[in-house]
Amino acid sequence: MASIKVEIRSGAYYDSAFLMQLQRSLATLPGVQDAGVIMGTEANKELLAHIDLLPAEAESAKPDDLIIVVRAETETGAIEALSKVDELINRRKSTSSQEHRPQSLETAVQELPEAEWVLVSVAGRYAAGVTRQALRLNKHVFLFSDNVSVDEEIELKQISSEKGLLVMGPDCGTAIIRGVGLGFANKVRLGPIGVVAAAGTGLQQVTSHIHQLGSGITYGIGTGGRDLSEKVGAVTFLQGIDVLSRDPETRVIVLVSKPPAPKVAEKVLEVARRAGKPVVVNFIGRTPAARQVDNLTFAGSLDDAAEQAVKIANQGTPVAEESKVKIDRFAPGQRYLRGLFSGGTLAYEAQFILQDYLPRVFANAPLNKENRLPNSLVSQEHTIVDLGEDEFTVGRLHPMMDNELRIRRLLEEAADPQVAVIMLDVVLGYGSHPDPAGELGPAIAKARKLAEAAGRYLEVVAVVTGTDEDPQTLDHQIEQLKAAGAWVHPSNETVVRYAGRILQALNQPKEQPEAAATTPVALATLQGTLIAINVGLESFAENLTAQGTPVIQVDWRPPAGGNERLMSILEKMKK
Amino acid sequence: MASIKVEIRSGAYYDSAFLMQLQRSLATLPGVQDAGVIMGTEANKELLAHIDLLPAEAESAKPDDLIIVVRAETETGAIEALSKVDELINRRKSTSSQEHRPQSLETAVQELPEAEWVLVSVAGRYAAGVTRQALRLNKHVFLFSDNVSVDEEIELKQISSEKGLLVMGPDCGTAIIRGVGLGFANKVRLGPIGVVAAAGTGLQQVTSHIHQLGSGITYGIGTGGRDLSEKVGAVTFLQGIDVLSRDPETRVIVLVSKPPAPKVAEKVLEVARRAGKPVVVNFIGRTPAARQVDNLTFAGSLDDAAEQAVKIANQGTPVAEESKVKIDRFAPGQRYLRGLFSGGTLAYEAQFILQDYLPRVFANAPLNKENRLPNSLVSQEHTIVDLGEDEFTVGRLHPMMDNELRIRRLLEEAADPQVAVIMLDVVLGYGSHPDPAGELGPAIAKARKLAEAAGRYLEVVAVVTGTDEDPQTLDHQIEQLKAAGAWVHPSNETVVRYAGRILQALNQPKEQPEAAATTPVALATLQGTLIAINVGLESFAENLTAQGTPVIQVDWRPPAGGNERLMSILEKMKK
Questions:
Q1: In contact, B221 and B197? CB cutoff 8 Å
Q2: Does the beta-carbon distance from B201 to A425 stay under 8 Å?
Q3: Domains and CATH numbers, chain A
Q4: Dihedral of the alpha carbons of A244, A246, A247, A253, in degrees to the nearest 10
Q5: Interface of B with A in 70-99 (CB under 8 A)
Q6: Please, is B46 exposed, middle or buried when counting C-beta atoms within 10 Å of its C-beta (0-12, 13-18, 19+)?
Q7: Do A394 and B185 touch (CB under 8 A)?
Q8: Of the candidates B38, B173, B430, which has its C-beta nearest A395's C-beta?
Q9: CA-to-CA separations, A97 to A86, A92, B198, in angstroms, rounded
């Protein structure tokens, strides 16, 4: 009959790599069936119980306590195994302290002052303290540790953004700085793509796939998976976009995130739109309205993000049409859209695409019920009316055949001093009016003059749906509309996005509320040879060495022997 | 001071083209400022009031009443204008009745029995009756009329599907049958793309753009915008997909819809997946999880749909990997997925993609809160566990460095008789375990043997994230996993979709509930030369003639002089 023996050690600090090794050493002793060496958190105790390794004496262990438990074939075997713990601990200590190591981050910085980076992977409850110290010393921090509270994250990122430093993390698995991987990182060649990721394995999957496709990356900036939460507000993510937009070697930016807070995602995309470079976006769980919006390309998966980025980088596709639009010709107060459609599907698609630009668009055939126009005859704010709806066609020809109703409405909308843009669809083909632009063109010209006489500028935009073989002559229809002063395109999406950009600009608050004043991250600190100081998992330092990166390992111990009250006093003295 | 005069005519039937012409004629009489000729529906009366053309006498007009109203400079002018109404009506009658025309649909069919199509564009309240008659005569119907109730639509489509006939509509703006446009339709060249559209201008925009891109279409099957509502249940849409999947000349299918009911959209996509051809989908307002799912490509806009379809047609891309998977090797009862991840982002992406295949997946880090796994140590139904979550890493190495916890869990899941598929991620690179497959491989082999010994088949699938330059040697890692019997791929998406297809198949009810037994539409009736009978707007017949299509115009009048009670009796006698 098997026997389980346990030992609880209080106040002892060992890193998790060491705990794993101790557990493995114990488990392979003769006669031992299983072993656990783990801190006494509730989750860990549940886990031990689940695998039948939690004797009654261990149930009261506290999170700071180290539980050492073995199950052996005999009671003697279990007791013997536990008796070897100290020997195993000491054996390990003696092997690891052969070379000289600084005992503190300060000392390490004195020894290697040119290091711009500190890697932190100590246990979660000490990680914020070490990070604070690194920021005080003006270093960028790669913060691998998890179990750091969101309040600590907010505080650390406030400090870092004020100082123009990056805090990548907490719980940041991966970063790649000019070919050097920090934490978990694949060996990826240098190339024209920069990645910002609130997603550790997301960054790994995307950069690996970019490499597999023959391309490479400049920087892979990890932010920690919580960076796009409402509380944190994408501080590091926005720093990352800013850095990559300024980096001349980054030609395409990829943004990846675990499911972000919708509002924060919007804010990030708004900034990304002004990056001045193509940006490929994969925010998991968040499906965008369109594949392509200005310079943004939305990818359906991590692999797709890599593929799109490589394609754009290879093609050297320039940024799509300047997203700034001329709005100074509009009079004050002009801000609304009126869409007067004959095609129901085009009207729906317009509403759908406008979600990217405007908070709310009313319609007589709305995408969402709450946006139903109370009275189809009276527009309000941004409005799209489908004049082909049943309500308009009892005993009346469809508006593709009879322009009368639409022309009346067009002139009515043009008289509204708040209207800035009027959109029309002109659908050609058999069955439709034989010369719609011949009637709509003069009405457009009249509407624009009417607005002009009142001191306003009226933008009339029109999609023309048709082919070069249609009976109305496509080119002639387009010419007549253009001659009337309309902005014309055969793609509904293109016209709607053009209108959307104008309306978005007209409806933006004059003074853009700036985020808390931050110092930009100095590109130069990222461009040089990476030199680092490592506090925590030794394997991370070994990996840097393997990549040819100078690194100092700090022989770190919790301050004040891990006593939290003392730690807090020490911390205050340093401020 | 202007004067308004009105005349109400009860029980008179004129088609809407005629009403428009009468209105225009009145409006251009000398001294007349404005005129309205319109049926007395509430919406129409509101509109007249809105443009100041509704005198008190007209306010009580009923929907069947024709309102004729003029506003003239003087009272005499208004009275004179109204006095010319009969003359204008008679002038029009005499011009339009010069040639012989059959007075009924039956007569027309006798004269042109080879016509397979009837176009219906009479006023909404008569349209269902004419359609019923056409179906009785075994004709496909293009039903342009709107203002047809949804109950009538359901009834008509039940009749048509039982007879293997198409009812395109009601409110179907457009169809193109082998190059011939019905209703509103652009001149589009013949080509390899077939379109089914619950979206009139959607069909026009997509087919026009296909033409502009140099390609063309076989059929453009309109269904009416309500076909994908819950009540109608996509009867015509599914007939359309079925026809196009059987048509050898259609190489790519495009599906377009105004915002569909989500459940109906799911059903349609399920059928589309079995079409045996590439299918491009643009359902407005409904953003899919992924760009590509098996043979389905999701487009972001109408233009994008056209572009994707042309690209696929040009490339001749074959249908993606056979979507049927082998499931007969699983034992009865095996049906669940257990995903054991070390990468949080990969775990999120897996959940996101699995939405395409499974109704619910539990997780310790769920995409939606309601899918939170109550106990992270105990899987239930389909479950994805991220072993890198904070709860698992207090004083324990990350699962990318230490495989122990995952191997324990793997063996536990393998022992569950309901488990069919286990998914793992193996993330290589600096920082990760130096030989993860060296430890996971044997565990996978052991897990599979354990299941085999219990008479089950266990599918273990693994994504390997890494590059050929990673320290672990990518190929060697993949080989070891494959040698252990795992299905391995470097794309997370590919692995998840492979697993998703298996699990979807295992969880499908044995007997697939069939839709109401329908007769397939005979392809031959669509393939021949289009010959048609037109009931309603004369311009539709003229357009067919212009396209070289034989057509007979029926000189249609409402039965029983438009008396609804009599109409209903006549209708019953015919059944």
A1: yes
A2: yes
A3: 3-96 (3.30.70), 106-315 (3.40.50.261), 336-506 (3.40.50.261)
A4: 30
A5: none
A6: middle
A7: no
A8: B38
A9: 17, 9, 74
Among chain B residues, CA nearest to A188: B467
B304 vs A contacts (CB less than 8 Å): 290-291, 493
Q: Rounded to an integer, what distance in angstroms lies between the CA atom of residue A352 and that of residue A346? A: 10
One DSSP character per residue, B123-145 reads: -HHHHHHHHHHHHHTT-EEEE--
Amino acid symbol at A41: T
Residue from B225, B218, B130, B136 nearest B172 by CA: B225
CA distance B399 to chain A (A): 11
B46 Cβ under 8 Å from any chain A Cβ = yes
Q: Does A465 touch chain B (CB under 8 A)?
A: yes
- Does A199 sit within 8 Å of B171, measured CB to CB? no
Q: Which of B441, B452, B450 shows the shortest CA–CA distance to B477?
A: B441
Quote the CA–CA distance of A369 and A383 in Å, as a whole number.
Answer: 14
Nearest to A186 among B50, B343, B470 (CB): B470
Q: How many CB atoms lie within 10 A of CB A528?
A: 11
Q: Do A208 and B401 touch (CB under 8 A)?
A: no
CA distances B26 to A445, B85, B88, Å, are 25, 8, 9
Identify the helix (H) or strand (E) that includes residue B162: helix B150-163
Strand order in the sheet with B3-9: B3-9, B66-72, B32-39
**d(Cα A528, Cα A180) in Å, to the nearest integer?**
12
Per-residue pLDDT of chain A (575 residues; tens, 9 = 90+): 789 999 999 877 777 888 888 998 999 999 999 999 998 888 889 989 988 899 999 999 988 889 999 999 999 999 999 999 988 888 766 555 546 789 899 999 999 999 999 999 998 889 999 999 999 999 999 999 999 999 999 999 999 999 999 999 999 999 999 999 999 989 999 999 999 999 989 999 999 999 999 999 999 999 999 999 999 999 999 999 999 999 999 999 999 999 999 899 999 999 999 899 999 999 998 777 667 788 999 998 899 899 999 989 988 654 444 445 788 999 999 999 999 999 999 999 999 989 888 989 999 999 989 999 999 999 999 999 999 998 898 878 899 999 999 999 999 999 999 999 999 999 999 989 999 999 999 999 999 999 999 999 999 999 999 998 899 999 999 999 999 999 999 999 989 989 998 998 899 765 454 555 578 999 988 988 899 999 998 889 999 999 999 999 998 888 766 666 676 676 666 65
- Asked if B466 and A391 come within 8 Å (Cβ–Cβ), the reply is no
Interface contact flag, A467 B208, Cβ < 8 Å: yes
Chain A residues with CB inside 8 Å of B195's CB? Answer: none
For chain B, report the end-to-end CA distance as a whole number of angstroms.
Answer: 58
Among the partner-chain residues B200, B432, B469, the one whose CB lies closest to the CB of A344 is B200
Q: Identify the residue whose tokens are 């609804």.
A: B564
Q: Which A positions 382-401 lie with beta carbon below 8 A of chain B? A: 388, 390-398, 400-401
- Helical axes A200-212 vs B344-354, angle rounded to 10°: 80
The reply to whether B377 touches chain A by the CB within 8 Å rule is yes
- Closest residue in A to B258 (Cα) is A345
Extended strands (E) in A58-138? 66-72, 117-120
Which residue among A24, A348, A408 places its CB closest to the CB of B258? A348
To the nearest whole Å, the CA of A147 is away from the closest chain B CA by 6
pTM for the model:
0.68
Q: Which residues of A touch B186 (CB under 8 A)?
A: 428-430, 465-467, 469-470
CA distance A505 to B293: 37
